[in-house]
Amino acid sequence: MTKLNQEEQEIFDSYENDEWNSVKTSERITQLQSYAKATLAKDKNITLRLSSLDLEALQAKAIEEGIPYQTLISSILHKYVTGQLIDN
């Protein structure tokens, strides 16, 4: 299991203690679906030059994850620009 930081552990404990209440309404679901569509929309193409070694390594990682390598690259870039990419 991944080690949680203090904030993550507090959220996890709160969830485990049934301190969360559902806000499931049709309006909220519609709102969240529109957010998801906007976030996941891939509406731009780019050309990117990589070394063959980096590309081969990305393709190997993508195979391990069971996803296309373009999806992996897109995910890594998204995590980087949103501050979610964690350096181990």
From TrEMBL:
Tree of life domain: Bacteria
InterPro entries membership: CopG_antitoxin (IPR022148)
Name assigned to this protein: Antitoxin
